[in-house]
Amino acid sequence: MRTALRTSIVTAALAGALLAPAAGTAFAATPLAAAAASSSVPDRYAGTPVSIGEGVVAVLRNKSEGPEAWIRSVPADWKPGDAYIGRVLATLDHEHPTASAEGLQLALTEEDVHHPVLSVTKDGKTSSYPLPKGQGPECVSKPVSQPIGAGAEAQLMMTPNGPVAQLDFDEEGPGGHTSLNRSTPSLPEGAGIVARILNASSAEPVFEWKTQGGNTLYGHASFPKLPKGCTFDYTFQKPTEKPQPDTKPEPKPSPSASTGHSTPTAPKPQTAGQTSVVPKGGVAAGAEIPADTADRTAYAAGAGLVAALGALGAGLLLRRRSRTQG
Predict the structure, then answer these.
(1) Angle of CA points 59, 63, 67, to nearest 5°
(2) Residue 204: which of 163, 161, 157 has the closest Cα?
């Protein structure tokens, strides 16, 4: 009985493990999951969607990449405000200005770079859809030259699509020209030097470089501002990268040096000052000892003279008594 119960539990667990992926796939295929996946549109594919036919929309863009029209497949009942990131039927840009999809003849005209138009022809009838107003070359800042050492130089620019660092190397460096931007913000590790754009999608990107080994410090430079009246094609992100130190750390002071005072030493015993000497003999009573050394010397001499006179008087007295008795 117990063996049969264990077998049934194991079988149920295996069945659940095998059915779990299928259940997850089924959930992902539901319209709700598909709508959630398409609700977050990457900046590169965001644009203005317009219906150009049944089940067909044109996503119109005119950003730093230039005029573009992404022709995508959507549900037949699509309406403005619905998700528009579906299967790509065709893409029109300055290199591919014409295309056909779902019986539609498409053409992208760029007679005015600031006001390009998508033309859609079906059954001999043509409709025009203007693209958003673009930002031309005047929306690119003037390059700022920044020497980075080792015969290399960086041209720093700001564009509507973000910061650009054009690196120019001499024959001893990686060679040629390399461009760093938001898509490729740094050189690979094997390049031999460090060159990167920190926080490339933030409001204040920083160019960081280091071209020499050893104790050479990192260098940093800010990018120029976007010309007045121009706007960015993306949403700023919060900076997360911190620049490397560009100054050598100062040595930590010792505990005694940090306070500005030397270590205190034990006080020496005091040897100078007033002392007292208790005299002996007949002059002991009421004797006082002067504080000064010279006074002490004079006092000692006077006390000796008094003692001598006393002894002489005592001798004379004894001598007189002996004569009287004799």
Answers:
(1) 60
(2) 163
Measured at the alpha carbon of residue 114, what is the angle toward residues 127 and 130, in degrees to the nearest 5?
Answer: 15
- Span 107-129, average pLDDT: 87
163-204: per-residue pLDDT in tens?
A: 999 998 765 545 556 899 999 999 998 888 899 999 999 999
Place of tokens 């002392």: 275
302-314 burial by CB neighbour count: b if 16+ within 10 A, else e? ebeeeeeeeeeee
Q: Is residue 236 helix, strand or coil?
A: coil
State the amino acid at position 54 in one-letter form: E
Q: How far apart are CA 122 and CA 118, in angstroms?
A: 13
Helix (H) or strand (E) holding 318: helix 293-325
Cα–Cα distances in Å, from 123 out to 80, 90, 103, 120?
25, 19, 9, 10
Please report, for residues 43, 57, 137, 138, 158, the alpha-carbon distance to residue 65 in angstroms, rounded to integers and kept in the order given: 12, 20, 12, 15, 14
C-alpha–C-alpha distance, residues 118 and 98, integer Å: 10
Closest CA to 53 of 37, 71, 32, 26: 71
pLDDT digits (tens, 9 = 90+) for 242-301: 998 766 656 666 555 545 555 555 555 554 444 445 555 544 444 444 445 555 555 555
How big is the CA angle at 181 (ends 177 and 184), to the nearest 5 degrees? 85
Distance CA 263, CA 260 (A): 10
Q: Map out the domains of the chain as residue ranges.
A: 40-130, 137-222
The answer, yes or no, to whether residue 76 has pLDDT greater than 90, is: yes
Q: How many residues does the chain have?
A: 326
pTM for the model: 0.47
